[in-house]
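Weekly structure sync - notes
Attendees: PM, LS, DV (DV joined late)
Agenda: review two folding runs queued last week.

Item 1: First target. Sequence and structure tokens pasted below for the record.
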Amino acid sequence: MQFDKLRRRDFITLLGGAAAAWPLVARAQQNERIRRVGALMSTREGDPEGQARFSAFRDGLQSLGWVDGHTLKIEPRWTGSNSGDIRKYAADLVALAPDVILASGGSVVGPLLQATHTVPVVFTQTPDPVAAGFVASLSRPGGNVTGFTQLEYGTGTKWLELLKEIAPRTTRAAVLRDPAIPEGVGQFAVIQSVAPAFRLEVTPVDIRDAGHLERAIKAFARSSNGGMVVTSSALANVHRDLIIALAAELRLPAVYSFRSFASAGGLASYGSDSIGPHRSAAKYVDRILRGEKPGDLPVQAATKYELVINLRTAKTLGLHVSPTLLARADEVIE
């Protein structure tokens, strides 16, 4: 009997303590709000390259303790590098009042920064953010933005060198570029300045809609000894399959700036890693979510460049790739 009374007294005491603690637990849970992160993507939603970039970003956040749907909510918007959609979705994301926005691709950064001067922005795949006016300097970006640059304009020299090494009979090169972005102009300027050293005549081909692109490439291919250099741009990614198909149909040796082109059947690519910076961007987003200011985080330059040779495509074009070049490649697709 006395034991039963003791047990009841202990139970009532325990229950009273739990009741007192419950409001504290509830308040703690209410204070742990789900953070919101926007992601403005320059690619189409179904694009494998775009999905790889987004997955790297999401997985990077998860490795830092941010789980999509639990501790934060990621709001992706896929633009296909369409200027109208970029402006629309930039405004859409800003209206959600997110804690931070990922800007994946140089073409989406400008419109996004026009939409907000206060929401923190972390960019990737952006060649020259200082010249574009996105940041004050690489070491001290200032404002509400920071991120990761994609390439040096000097990479254009490497593209011409690679084209001549694989296809030495090439004397003319169509340079595909997006004239609406600063890097489109800058990359072509470098290529044009070094072309005489490679005995190459270069012709700019503006990447607009698919019809214009097809007509321009076919017109260029009417003369012999032609090749192509596809500079870095979101629009080039949008028209990847068309560009690769035209290069194969017209038997134009082509060098690309993204690995994804060589993986999809393009002859060769040389450029910076496009996936790793999205994992790194997750680290910057984590630091911003924990209180740091984007303007205090230095813009980081690309450090890893990859050479990919598609040997199967080379053989189809009747090109011999030297063992020396194959030995330098990070990946050879056979």
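Item 2: Second target, run right after the first with the same settings.
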Amino acid sequence: MIDPILITGCARSGTSMTAGIMDHCGAFGGRTIPGGHANPKGFFENREIRENLLKPYLILCGADPMGQKPLPELHHLLPLENLRAKVETVIKYHGYKDGPWYYKGAKLCLVWPIWHKAFPDAKWVIVRRNDEDIINSCMKTGFMRAYRDPEGWQKWIDHHKKRFEEMKEIGLQVREVWPTKFVEGDHSEIRETVEWLGLTFDEKIVEEIVVPNRFNRGSAKVRRAS
């Protein structure tokens, strides 16, 4: 199997929406988690990989399996044998034949060296969003429970941003995507990324996946303690 497209970023940044576009533009993701209140169009995350590989590995490293608190430190990451074979087995079992395939997981960036070792030629898509919008969305989302104040979520975001910089500095194949742009109708960045990934861009697919009102609910400014 060719190396995958790995989609990651802070939770509540639009990773599901971005992965949904990649999925509908031709990348294979296997059996993914269906939509719910938080993501009505779907989470586009392979449930079996998340539940049987990624979450248990976070627990093994002494981190929160939800990727909230505590977060793993890179110097505490443990080896994970046969990750590539395990992931590929799941994808094939879910019906993969050939061509581009992906795994989307916001928590991937927290343990990126392990995935880079397993898939050294993977193309990474890092989904970005304004810090305050992420904080506001976290504080409105039921499963984001680690912090009750903006300051706590800011430290959590800063941890992720540090991982993003490390990924770029070491030379991973990385593209950053800001969903706010395509939600507002500017498709140039997402088009370039889709084509960089070897997929076929379609304006109608973006319009089908994007839920502007739902995404923009997290764009109101939050009040920070003085």
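Discussion on item 2: The first strand starts at residue 5 and ends at 9.
Action: LS to circulate a short write-up before next sync.
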